[in-house]
Design brief:
mainly alpha; EamA_dom; Threonine/homoserine efflux transporter RhtA; transmembrane helix; EmrE-like; membrane
Length: 287
């Protein structure tokens, strides 16, 4: 099996920019108050338009091998499940809980990657995953199985599972296809799956929230997710997953600045633990 390419400073900067762009999903998801299926349907459709134009401009072929159609289709279904569960978690709680429950996915990835890609399990990834979990524990206030936050965490965990499996599927395709092409096909699938949302919900409020919808489609989806997929060319899926644990920290900071969601001291402590795992994995990867 082909090993991830040793990365340089450009790759390191690219992955960190991707994390910053992806971290806007939490604030955008909290800012948009449309029903979740309608939000995701519009997000996917807008992103699809941008991606098709980009692929046309860059001369990227839309052809894919017949053997890759089902894996790419499955990745699109998982992408829809990931987004639906994640935005539901955001609407039930806040940016911190929504984003941080999702970021159990590095732990899930570290266990699933050896099964999907036949790589050797590394004990350090388990330790770093546990460190991330401790960080998330401190970031979640008033944990109880009887409140809305716990339900939000459940949706976040479902989103994390979908995201982890989707990433592992795409890892096997990035050497063959551009990240923008893979995202284009995923947006086609998500758009088709959520087509009924346009008939089930009132469309009147869409015009009042076009800024958030445009932002989550262009900034988070087109730019962030495309760069994120391209990172799989240079890093293992587990490494990308653990490095991406900085996203909740970015998201919480953006939420504090724009949505006035000020984190408690436990949130700060959890963020420090998550950042520690990111720094350790960054140093390991760079060496």
């Amino acid at each position: 099996m082909k090993q991830p390419t040793t990365f340089n400073t450009h790759n390191f900067l690219e992955i960190n920019l991707a994390m910053l762009l992806l971290s806007t999903s939490g604030p955008f998801g909290k800012f948009i108050t449309l029903p979740v299926p309608l939000t995701i349907a519009i997000r996917a459709l807008l992103a699809l338009l941008f991606l098709v134009l980009y692929c046309k401009f860059k001369g990227i072929s839309f052809g894919i091998r017949s053997t890759d159609r089902w894996p790419i289709f499955l990745s699109g279904v998982l992408m829809a499940g990931h987004w639906l569960a994640y935005f539901q978690a955001l609407q039930l709680s806040n940016v911190a809980i929504g984003m941080l429950s999702l970021f159990t996915y590095p732990v899930l990835t570290s266990f699933l990657e050896p099964l999907f890609l036949k790589t050797r399990f590394q004990k350090i990834h388990l330790l770093l995953g546990i460190l991330v979990m401790f960080g998330i524990f401190f970031l979640i206030p008033d944990f109880s199985f009887g409140n809305q936050n716990t339900i939000a965490i459940g949706f976040g965990l479902l989103s994390a599972l979908c995201y982890a499996v989707r990433n592992l599927i795409l890892k096997t395709k990035v050497d063959r296809y551009q990240g923008s092409l893979l995202m284009t096909y995923q947006m086609v699938i998500v758009s088709l799956l959520l087509l009924p949302a346009y008939f089930l919900y009132d469309l009147y409020a869409i015009g009042q929230q076009w800024e958030g919808l445009l932002g989550v489609a262009l900034i988070t989806t087109v730019l962030g997710h495309t760069m994120f997929i391209n990172c799989f060319k240079h890093f293992s899926v587990t490494t990308v997953s653990i490095l991406s644990s900085i996203q909740p920290v970015y998201g919480i900071l953006i939420g504090a600045l724009l949505l006035a969601e000020i984190p408690a001291w436990t949130t700060v402590l959890g963020g420090i633990l998550i950042l520690a795992s990111v720094v350790v994995e960054s140093v390991r990867s760079y060496r």
